[in-house]
Amino acid sequence: MTFRSRVARAFVALALVPASGLVAQDQTEDEQAVLATLERLFDAMRANDGDLARSVFAEGAVLISTEAGDGSPATSVRPAAGFIDAIGGASAEWDEPFWDPVVHVQDHLATVWTKYAFYLDGTFSHCGVDAVLFARGADGWKITALSDTRERENCELPPDLRR
Question: Is residue 155 part of a domain?
Answer without folding.
Answer: no
